[in-house]
Amino acid sequence: MSYDVAVIGAGTMGSAAAYHLAKRGKRVIVFEKFHIVHDSGSHSGRTRIIRHAYFESPDYVPLVLRADKLWQEIESITGTRLLIRTGGLDMGLPESTLVSGSIRACKDHNLKYEVVDSNQIRKRWPQFKIPDTWIACFDPQAGFLLVDRCIRSHVDLAEEAGAVIKPNDEILSFQPDQNGVKVETSSGKYQADRAVFCAGSWTDHLLKELKLPLVVKRKALAWFRPKDPMQFTPEKFPVFLSELPEGVLYGFPLHDSFTVKIANHHTNGDAIDPDSVDRNFHENDVPEVKTFVRNFLPGLTDEVQEGKICLYTITPDTDFILDFHPSYRNVILAAGFSGHGFKFATVIGEILADLAVDGSTRHPISRFRIDRF
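Request: output the structure for the sequence above.
Response:
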């Protein structure tokens, strides 16, 4: 059977693209190397921050606002809670990239925000022990997304709309031409008019000829036990980012456990192969996170209670790739989400469907063109 669109990958972006394509009445088939919602790619760790005060660039704000609206729509359709708002603190020195960038994004887009000094931070959120020189940009709309529910919601809605989902079906070959695409997988051979490529850390393996400047890195996430759990509930403890010389440390309140998740967003470290990476968490994976806990969050014990590994697929400028294949306009690429893409999944699914169906999108994506490299 021939399909209108083949989606490569049913993870964060592929599941969203499948839903938006199937919702538009397209015959969609989706191939996933692993099972649905797995720990082998970039979406392990159960939660992801969503924030409107986007320090990376104000250019992201319209996209995250649309993504937020779409997450709410998915919640309404499915009756499943996906987004928990806690407010968010972006903390550091006033001149830091994190704090100054967040304030700039809020000003440029007339977002609600507060600038709070160190005394105010300690008074309102006494869980933090921070330097007197720090300030924060407080984003009242920030919070976190529940990863497994988000992906499963997109997959379930895509299936309800007629999409064929093929888990545990590895791509063996991918052959596009001007008339369509041929895909061979571990289950058989398939044809489609177009393809949407959302293979995450395996993008470069499957599209070697493009020589995309993607680097895959192993990232460790850690959970710590609070001395008083009631001080770290979503009602009392916000999501946060803090800029330090060793990276941007970020964290979450308690959710579905008695532990607080904290990690380092830095993009340092050696490149790895996603097929051979060490997926076991080791205590020495997060020394800077443990130091951060000791220095800034005295209400947590510094012994790691749980650890997980996820993968970052990083571009040189840490911006995404959202574009047509340089040689085939019937192939659309989504890659290089550089550890900050999850929150955008809903709108990226919409964008990918726009590009596949209409050949263009109303959303501002010129920043993500392939030819910038």
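The two ends are 37 Å apart (CA to CA).
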